[in-house]
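TEACHING EXERCISE
Course module: macromolecular assemblies
Task: Read the component lines below, then compare them to the predicted structure of the full complex.
Student: A.B.
Group: 4
Components provided:
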Amino acid sequence: MSEKIKKIKVISFDLDGTLVDIVYTMWVWERGLPELYAKKNSVSISEAIASVTGEYARVSDASLKWYDIAYWFNFFDLSGDWKDLMEKHREKICLFPEVKEIIEELTEDYELVITSNAAREFVEIELQVTGIEDYFSRIFSATSDFRQVKKTSQFYKKLCKTIGISPSQMIHIGDHYEFDYLAPQQAGIETYYLDRDGKTPKNSHTVKNLKEFVRILRYSQTKR
Ligand SMILES: [Mg+2]
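Instructor-supplied answer key:
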């Protein structure tokens, strides 16, 4: 048997849209923050949403600022603490239905990590509310820990180095085609694309939920 046979040690998950429903982050940015803006500037909520999202678009998601809620509080000169805004909407944080079961299962055989490009503040509150933190040995925020706005292939290489494994010992899964599927693949990591809405043509590495991912993983690992 070849010594080069892969032995997967670590499974890396994206967070928003993969483990946790994006409804919370969307709400904080697109509703919660505009509500504060409306109050401060005495404008309607729809005017506030238009102004705030217009400013987000001007900065673009290629900038670190775009992910930084403290920056936006300061930019719009909002009173109060951004932490209170995040806390206020915490009941919107929820896991996708199959998550608990699959992480409980996978944690028996693999080291699990989270690889997110959300800022650490968001990652922390989401893990705290959902109670899944203990299943993961490491939690990475591309923006907060690596000062990178995107999960590039370089980022994934650094990540493997930090964990102390080769890319061939990791599998990554997430819901962003470029940053969760192509970029880690370029780094030499086996990847799966989570397409919950079934928008892309199916292939052997596209799954519609995490249960399907585990099924394929189990099958491919027994064949190796
Ligand atoms: Mg995602």
